[in-house]
Amino acid sequence: MTSLKIIQQMLVEEFGLSTGQVDPDALLEELGIDSLATIEFMFLIEDKFKLTMPDEPVVVKTVGDIAQEVDSLVEKKEAQGK
Amino acid sequence: MKRVVITGMGVVSPIGTNVQTFYDSLLAAKSGIYKQGFSWGHALVAQVQDDIDSPFPKIKRLSLDRVTQMALLAVRQAADQAQIDFAADNGTTAGIYWGTGMGGAITLESAYRDLLINQVPRLRPVTIVAAMNNAATGQIGIDFGIRGPSYTYSSACSSSAVAIGEGFRAIRFGLVRTAIVGGAEALLTEGVFKAWNSLQTLAKLDADRPETSCRPFAADRSGFVLGEGAAALILEEEESARERGAAILAEVIGYGNTTDASHITQPNAAGQSLAMAQAIAEAALTPEQIHHINAHGTGTKLGDVSETNAIKQIFGSTAHAIPISATKALHGHLMGATGAVEFVAVLEALRTRTVPPTAHLFHPDVDCDLDYIVEGKRQLAILDVVMSNSFGFGGNNVTLIARRYPHP
User: Could you say which of B57, B60, B62 has the minimum Cβ distance to residue A40?
Assistant: First the structure.
């Protein structure tokens, strides 16, 4: 999960969480990040990584899920760029 | 019918973000009006200067417009004072009656700016839930576990006065046992400011003394100053407040609400006086039993004369004997929140037996010839019944009356 560290840093900065809270297995809901906040965060990720999320809703439950989703999208983007 | 008492109140205003500071500022004639610098230029406004962000975790702030933050802070103060636990009966016997003119105006304007000027491809997903007019109402319900009815009133400058009146009626008629009532407004944006400015109702800047630019009832008045803020009250059935041993601050006894049916902006003395008459009738009083009025007193040419005439129509020969404060000179015109903020002012007048001055009335107007308390704060030997007027564009007129508790 190459994007994990950046994701964790963004979660700390955007949501005011502590670094200890944003473990890869941490459930977003337990961190107080509800569905609206998740969409908001995914939009920030799009800007940060210059990505476009798929049209269908992305199911992410943990911090690690977000990183995996981003990694996968980055890979796809790089593959398309080659 | 039930008797309705007040057990808590809270204020977030340009002259103080708690009731004590707010009222101390009014009595000291401390103005919250400044020439403020914004990203879009300078404007004469009354802005809340205190930090209203840090009380909320960053993650919660995502979906809160400034108007909702101020609303929640005011309600927190009121609920703390009332020491009430709404969850005690699962929140089902409590209601929310909230007023706002433009809801999340800052969020909405920021979204339009992003879309139309910055040309962002999409808007923030929380735009709707932060901007909608009932955003504060919903968030109050979530934070305080209110599961009874909730209403959001939007009648321009009378919005929160309507909310208080309707909450009062709901308890009086036995629909709910407790109510969170009040209102909030946060609309100091470029678009809103310039729209009001075009309407030519805003006060002209006094370059030497900007803080005195709003001058209700004065010969040289030129309009009001846009402000922001919130105020909240906890209303309860007298019986249930007494049962739980709550400290009772005052009793709400009268509410009048009328519509001019004449003009969308021009005030109408007949409609205004009818609202006062209705409130006095519901309170089962006669006009001379009112000891103090907080006037709507915006400082516009037409509005102040109309209200003066309306008061004369109701009070007749005793009109000149009633001390009248127009506190917008100091806290600005808080639009949808102003009725609630000024109702807190009259309740504090009851508590302190001292009424605030109408500030900046340096030059009297022959057409506005009542006792506007120009000399500074005034202690009153008898001060047991107070009245607050709020009149809104659209022609809505609201009067609220409260009385000392227990009644002397």
Answer: B62
Residues in chain B with CB shorter than 8 Å from the CB of A17 are 59
Using one digit for the tens of pLDDT, what is the confidence trace for B93-150? 999 999 999 999 999 999 999 999 999 888 998 999 999 999 999 999 999 999 999 9
Residue B175 burial by Cβ neighbours in a 10 Å radius (0-12, 13-18, 19+): middle
Residues 59-98 of B with CB under 8 A from A: 59-60, 62-63
Coil, strand, or helix at residue B174? coil
**B366 in A contact zone (CB under 8 Å):** no
Indicate the residue among B243, B278, B305 that finishes a domain: B243
Domain boundary among B222, B243, B264: B243
**Close Cβ partners of B341 (under 8 Å, ≥ 6 residues apart):** B11, B13, B22, B160, B229, B230, B231, B331, B334
Residue B129: closest C-alpha in chain A: A36
The verdict on B220 and B340 lying in the same domain is: no
**Inter-residue contact B227 to B187 (CB < 8 Å):** no
Q: What is the pLDDT of residues B134-156, one digit of tens each?
A: 999 999 999 999 999 999 999 99
Distance from CA of A17 to the nearest CA of B (A): 8
Number of separate domains in chain B: 2
Q: Which domain holds residue B383?
A: 255-403
Question: Three-state SS for B40?
Answer: coil
Residue B126: list chain A partners with CB under 8 A: 36, 40
Measured CA to CA, the distance from residue B140 to residue B143 in angstroms comes to: 5
Which chain A residues are within 8 Å of B63, Cβ to Cβ?
36-37
Residues of B marked active site are found at 157, 296, 333
Query: B337 in a domain, yes or no?
Result: yes
Residue B282 shares a structural domain with residue B377? yes
For B232-241, letters b (16+ CB in 10 Å) and e give bbbbbbbebb
Shortest alpha-carbon distance between residue B129 and chain A (Å)? 10
Domain positions in chain A are 4-81
Which residues 31-60 on chain A approach chain B with CB closer than 8 angstroms?
31-33, 36-37, 39-40, 43
Q: Please tell us whether the domain made up of A4-81 is placed in CATH 1.10.1200.10.
A: yes
pLDDT at A82 over 70: no
Is pTM beyond 0.90? Reply is yes
pLDDT digits (tens, 9 = 90+) for B45-64: 999 999 999 999 888 898 99
